[in-house]
Design brief:
The chain has helices at about 15-25, 75-85, 95-100, 105-115, 130-135, 160-175, 230-245, 270-280, 280-295, and strands at about 1-5, 30, 35-40, 45-50, 55-60, 65, 90, 120, 140-145, 155-160, 180, 190-195, 200-210, 225, 250-255, 260-265. By secondary structure, it is of the alpha+beta class. It has 3 domains: about 1-100, Rossmann fold (3-Layer(aba) Sandwich); about 120-185, Dna Ligase, domain 1 (2-Layer Sandwich), CATH 3.30.1490; about 185-295, ATP-grasp fold, B domain (D-amino Acid Aminotransferase, Chain A, domain 1), CATH 3.30.470. The strands form 4 sheets. A 5-stranded antiparallel beta sheet has the order 14-13-12-15-16, with helices on both faces. A 4-stranded parallel beta sheet has the order 2-1-6-7, sandwiched between helices. Strands 8-11-9-10 form a 4-stranded antiparallel beta sheet, with helices on both faces. Helix 1 (about 15-25) packs across helix 9 (about 280-295) and helix 2 (about 75-85) runs antiparallel to helix 3. The longest helix is centred in the last third of the chain and has 14 residues, at about 230-245. The radius of gyration is 20 Å and the shape is globular. The protein starts with a strand and ends in a 12-residue tail after the last helix. Bound molecules: adenosine-5'-diphosphate (ADP).
């Protein structure tokens, strides 16, 4: 197959591993920077063009796309991917599903509609709603989360009622969009990343926050190790990625006193941490899945909303 990887940087571990896995299985692979693509939006002949060095322009054509669209270019990256979809090109994750997963509020609403367990989460616009917001998640300690947060940057723990009020008012003051969420203390700064491909969790790891930290993101100094999932956790991870309409997803789960809870479904999950922690060839599993799934033809929109 001719596989296109939409990625801004071919040197990134995940991109390199996907190239390696695809090449070793006999596929032709190209890494394409979405920001160097442009498109013509016509009904007759929708295409994606690539601006190479200087003024060299070529038309792109692939049998399958693996989108690795970073949060900073979600909008343009998804527009390029959508154009490939208009031209009937298969993509392991569709643009609509990536857009859904990037907005935490939308994602929580979609997951809630399908009964997927999550921490109690609240959202409000009005400044007068601060007290009821805090109350609705059971009071402090609580988590305040920017809806567009990645790598734990916009996830803050308010330990007291006063700190919660101050944080909420500060975020409101600067016009940020945020969620207020029950703090799952018993998770003890750990979460579980389930790497879902199709209908299966192909690898999983437990991430532990660094000392004194409550966020377990590897980018924040967290460490990762192999973990055995319960059948319930596996089912939950696969259901969450199904609801979002993703065929490749990193589903993050907290082990709470009342069962596993989904906190995030990531549409461009990194491969480095999970391959190292699990010793599983996740890149190979992705390519293997595409070989079968792409034969079923270009994607039909999966999930809703
Ligand atoms: P991001 O997308 O910015 O990584 P997450 O929602 O995944 O944001 O949160 C980052 C980390 O913060 C999680 O991996 C987890 O360790 C911790 N965390 C997030 N939400 C909660 C919560 N409600 N209770 C306890 N810890 C949380």
């Amino acid at each position: 197959m001719k596989i296109g990887i939409l990625s801004r940087n071919r040197k990134l571990y995940s991109t390199r591993r996907l190239v390696e896995a695809a090449t070793s299985r006999g596929h032709e692979v190209r890494v394409i920077d979405a920001l160097k693509c442009f498109m013509n939006i016509t009904a007759n002949d929708p295409n994606v063009y690539y601006q190479g060095k200087e003024s060299y322009v070529e038309e792109l054509s692939f049998d399958a796309i693996i989108p690795r669209i970073g949060a900073s270019i979600t909008s343009y990256g998804c527009a390029v991917l959508r154009q490939f979809e208009v031209a009937n090109t298969y993509s392991i994750n569709e643009s609509i599903a990536i857009t859904r997963s990037r907005d935490k509020l939308r994602a929580h609403q979609l997951l809630a509609r399908k009964g997927i367990g999550q921490p109690v989460t609240s959202y409000a616009h009005s400044a007068r709603a601060t007290a009821p917001l805090i109350e609705s998640v059971g009071g402090a300690p609580l988590i305040v989360k920017l809806t567009q947060s990645t790598q734990g940057n916009g996830v803050l723990l308010a330990e007291t009622q006063k700190a919660a009020e101050a944080l909420i008012n500060a975020f409101r003051g600067i016009g940020s969009d945020f969620l207020v969420q029950e703090f799952i203390k018993e998770a003890g700064g750990s979460d579980i990343r389930c790497f879902v491909v199709g209908e299966k969790v192909v690898a999983a790891m437990q991430r532990k926050a660094a000392k004194g930290e409550y966020r377990s993101n590897l980018h924040r100094g967290g460490s990762a190790e192999m973990v055995k999932l319960s059948a319930t956790e596996r089912r939950l991870a696969v259901s969450a990625s199904r609801v979002m309409g993703l065929d490749m997803a990193g589903v993050d789960i907290l082990r709470s006193a009342h069962g596993p809870l989904v906190i995030e479904v990531n549409s461009s999950p990194g491969l480095e941490g999970i391959e190292n922690a699990s010793d599983i060839d996740v890149a190979g599993k992705i390519i293997e899945y595409i070989e079968i799934d792409a034969k079923r033809g270009p994607n039909k929109p999966k999930g809703k909303g």
